[in-house]
Amino acid sequence: MLVHPNPDPVAFSIGPVDIHWYGLMYVLAFGLFLALGRLRIRQPHIAAQGWKAEDLDDMLFYGMLGVVLGGRLGEVLFYQPAHFFANPLEIFKVWQGGMSFHGGFLGVLVAMALWARKSKRNLLDVYDFIAPMVPLGYAAGRLGNFINHELPGRIADPSLPWAMLWPGVEGPRHPSPLYQMLLDGIVVFIILWPYARKQRPRLAVGAMFTLLYGCARFTTEYFRVPDWEITVAGIPVTSGQVLSLPMIVGALVMLAWAYRQAPGRPVHA
After folding, report:
1. Can you give the pTM of this predicted structure?
2. Known binding positions
């Protein structure tokens, strides 16, 4: 059995300002976006669409706003509305953790729609372009959750080699943030990046990311203590699974639509 290392959430301080590991994980996520984006614009089918490094820098600003605002609003509205409405000032304490991927996903879609309109690009092309750069950033965020000892897992069999004693929680637990970092983030990236290296019908890459993440998240939710849970036909369904199901269904519809439009794919709308 393992014991959570329970590190200090403050990585270092600059005078009176504390720099938290959780915030550094977001800096890492945005850095990975830029690094992977520069690799992506070198791919022949991406370069043929006219993507440039300047686009990445501009998109990152919009994306950061979408991630932070959407992620925090998602946490407030989807997971802990009663707590945050009773303690509204805590909404602004993002360094303590508490960012919803589903909220951030919606926030980024809105931000990218605004960027696409400004840049006169088709939103579906933008989604296809950025989708492969998202999973590793997500993985960095889950590592931040682990450092903050957030999102404890369900009770685990003590004989499980990686069962973990979690700070402030009774009994051995599944280290669910690490599960989600590995499956929802790294494994999704390993599958999606090679898929996106080849020319695909418009929206296929974005839809594939949505499908892979939705399925991965639905699976890892079985090991995480849910924020809330409902029962459907006698089967318990967690909050994360409720939010992931529309992603899975929507992704299947989008994939079917994308390949039905093949082989023609205009570069610009």
Report:
1. 0.87
2. 142
